[in-house]
Task: structure prediction
Amino acid sequence: ALHCASASGKVECVKFLLSRQAKILLRNGDTETPLGLAINNKQKSVINELLTHDKVLEAKNFWGLTPVLMAIANGDFGIVEQLIKRGADTAVRDLDGNTALHIAAANGNI
Result:
């Protein structure tokens, strides 16, 4: 439920589910966390809510992408800036060893 609410921008539902101890780091069948889905779907209000919880910035999907790497791949620099302000590690690498710069260049986001 948290994944669906996060992907579709239902911030009040996200707040409710988190108040009921929903597992914020649980991955769905595509190995995405609720924050990853919110980033991929540009759900800024949900992103803001999820960022108030611990450890969401370090969570990686199947390919080793953290939330900041996903936002860079998507070219959403407002979200990138927000994640960095919250402490996202920009030196992290994905499973292939790609850095944020590699990912930005590969996706035409430089």
About this structure: The chain has a mean pLDDT of 95. The chain has seven helices and no strands.
